[in-house]
Fold:
Amino acid sequence: MQTIGLAVIGAGYWGPNLVRNAQATPGLRLRYLCDLDADRARRVLGEYSTVRVSDSLDEVLADPEVHAVAIATPAKTHLPVAMAALEAGKHVLVEKPLAATHAEGAALVRAAEERGLTLMLDHTYCYTPAVAHLRELVHSGGIGSVQYLDSVRINLGLVQPDVDVLWDLAPHDLSIFLSILPEGVRPLAVAAHGSDPIGAGRACVAHLTIELTGGAMAHVHVNWLSPTKIRTMVVGGSQRTVVWDDLNPSQRLSIYDRGVDRAGAAELGEEKREQTIVSYRTGDMVAPALPEKEALRAVMAEFHAAITEGRPPLTDGRSGLRVLAILEAASASLAQGGVFLPVLGADSEAETPEGALL
Structure:
């Protein structure tokens, strides 16, 4: 197995998780932990670690034994840090969101593609066994056509100093939506509503509504102020409905063969036609047995595989761009009182006349 020398950039909240999983992933060898606070980095690694500590990004990127970097720094720093890594010929794994703006994210995608380098997003939930099973079920037609998606991600969370609750929490749900939606179904327009009841200066509670091709609709509720933690998603199809409860390890997925069927007018007698064309279907509920695996370990394995196999990862740079496009439309909608606004690149992933990737 080809060994990839890795440096983790950032030793704050998420960096230690990247360090731990990188060290446990075959094919990855952690060379550096880089942070402006070198003492903090040393505390993360422990007294007996052989991994080098550096407070200089330039030093890390100049080392030929470093082939790739994993970035866990604030979103506003993603462009300069990731761009420096790409320009140094390093593959890049970056924490969500890809960048602070769609334009910055497009610049990173272009830089990676021009150099033939892997640019991957750490959309961790997309690598959970539950989402992998859900993606396979939806893509294989196991639930029929997608009719709606509804997600709730609320808890008594940390109010972020630089982003609102949409940019903090919604990328998880949006990345999952984009991962599981079948080919040909994509976001078209977005409306966002939010409130700031504690005077934080940014939305702490928000609701996001997304129009999808084919008439389906997706909804996301994110909230920093809830005393209870809820992580649920409902994916409704024409044949089956799937409920994902991420906080229920004994039954994360429940697949219901229950729903509403609509009969065509020609199928009904004259008397029934006047009464109703809707019937209810009641069937079984199945809870598939799923393995318990740490998703971040699968992220690291996919990063290694994408580099060594020369293929795009499951959550590549363009998937990160699609999340940014929805977030930017949501922010604009929030500022305009919740009107529906089109998602950039909803109908195409070609380049705009200005050359910005969609």
About this structure: The first strand starts at residue 4 and ends at 9. Residues 349-356 have pLDDT under 50 and may be disordered. The two ends are 35 Å apart (CA to CA). Residues 317-335 form the longest helix (19 residues).
